[in-house]
Design brief:
Layout: H1 2-25, E1 30-32, H2 34-44, H3 46-66, E2 72-82, E3 90-104, H4 108-174, H5 180-215, E4 223-225, H6 238-248, H7 250-270, E5 276-287, E6 293-303, H8 311-377, H9 383-418
Parallel strand pairs: 1-4
Antiparallel strand pairs: 2-3, 3-5, 5-6
């Protein structure tokens, strides 16, 4: 008996241990907060890699221009065989090394370096603009998904309320208190609520796909979002926010840099026909054998462009027009930034009032639903009255969650308008 009891205990323990291991093996979705989603996007989004590549290309151009100021060295070697019917066949060997160094070009290369450096700076600001847009899209998609998840909760709560109404109608019908009409009406409302749950869950899937795309994720990852049900405050006034935007917006800084590069292009065009002074040296060895004869030479070369058919004049004209265009684009973008900041700031500040009203409507509609349910429970109401109150309660809750996440989307839009975080 004791052996049987001991064996049973061991068997039960092993079963429990196996079950426990099985439970632990079930993967649990990782919870991602907003910062985690932004970090994932900045690490994986292809647009960011493309913008980074453009910075590297611009940096390479600087090196290409600087190479003009460094010594240039060429080495050559050759072999020639001459066959003739009147003379003896000859074999000629030759090797040479030649070096040259730019001494002066009137500062033209220095200006080219300055232009290339400004182009790299502009590419860097474009990279920051890409980062800003990626972060904005991630945050917006994050709040879109949170709202979609809340709508599922609302739809499931609505389904529960209609199921309760159907149960009550069936109970009243079974005792003869109401007609069959109450039961069929409640059943139809229940079916609509079931469809609402399906539609809400589909919206969640679409919103998650949009968030994955905003983060640059191409393979499915199982994660859930950390909920946000609080509100955000801003400590700066509109004037302070506009000042920050004018100094922080990367696309505005890129346009200013392009304008500076356009000015340097005028200087570059003016130096187009500057004289160039080069030093060069050459050593040659060869003949009937590689070491038969050798010679060397050294010299200085000055090149003066005399006439280019008016090319330089036209280049200067073009550069001046391009500068005017660049300066106009700066002013136009500055105006757009100011308008965007004002609209985003107003939408954000107004969102508090919208949220307050939405919260009040939820409370009122909930009270109205309680009254309708109690009236039907005591036999003085109708299922239509309860259904109407249920729908108003559902819409009030959906509008509340929309108002809350509109508040956060407005905050996200304000940060984008400013050019970075406001926290």
């Amino acid at each position: 008996m004791k052996k049987r009891l001991c064996f049973s205990s061991v068997f039960l323990f092993l079963c429990w241990a196996s079950l426990a291991q099985g439970i632990e093996a079930i993967p649990v979705a990782e919870i991602w907060d907003l910062n985690k989603c932004v970090t994932m996007a900045l690490a994986h989004h292809p647009d960011l890699k493309s913008a980074q590549g453009k910075v590297y290309v611009a940096d390479s151009r600087i090196g290409q221009v600087k190479s003009k100021l460094k010594p240039q060295v060429d080495i050559a070697t050759g072999y020639t065989r001459q066959d003739s019917s009147s003379t003896r066949d000859r074999e000629i060997y030759s090797s040479s090394a030649e070096a040259s160094q730019l001494i002066s070009d009137g500062g033209k290369t220095d200006v080219e370096i300055e232009v290339s450096s400004l182009q790299k700076e502009s590419a860097f600001y474009t990279l920051k603009e890409t980062e800003l847009l990626i972060v904005y899209n991630v945050k917006k998609s994050y709040f879109d998904l949170l709202e979609a998840q809340k709508n599922v909760e609302v739809a499931e709560e609505t389904l529960r309320l209609y199921q309760l109404l159907l149960d009550q109608a069936q109970g009243f019908y079974s005792v003869g208190s109401v007609s069959k009409y109450d039961v069929t009406t409640a059943d139809v409302d229940l079916s609509k609520a079931q469809l609402g749950v399906i539609t809400a869950k589909t919206a969640v899937k679409k919103a998650k796909t949009a968030l994955d795309n905003a983060m640059g994720i191409t393979t499915p990852i199982d994660y859930s979002l950390q909920d946000i049900v609080s509100t955000q405050e801003v400590s700066l006034n509109l004037e302070e926010i506009q000042k920050r935007a004018f100094s922080s917006r990367p696309e505005l800084q890129a346009k200013k840099t392009d304008s500076m590069a356009a000015y340097q292009n005028i200087r570059l065009a003016a130096k187009e026909n500057s004289p160039e002074l080069k030093a060069s040296g050459k050593y040659t060895v060869g003949g009937s054998s590689f070491t038969e004869d050798d010679n060397w030479s050294m010299g200085m070369t000055v090149q003066f462009p005399l006439y280019d058919g008016g090319l330089q004049t036209e280049k200067i004209k073009q550069a001046k027009v391009e500068l005017e265009i660049a300066e106009s684009e700066v002013e136009s973008l500055r105006s757009d930034v100011q308008k965007e900041v004002e609209q985003s700031y107003l939408e954000f500040t107004d969102s508090f009032d919208v949220l307050k009203v939405a919260e009040k409507v939820v409370s009122q509609s909930e009270e109205n639903l309680d009254i309708a349910q109690n009236r039907y429970r005591v036999g003085v109401g109708s299922p239509i009255e309860v259904a109407d109150a249920t729908e108003k309660y559902k819409e009030a809750r959906k509008e509340y969650w929309a108002a809350l996440y509109d508040h956060w989307r407005a905050w996200t839009a304000l940060e984008k308008a400013v050019g970075g975080s406001l926290e």
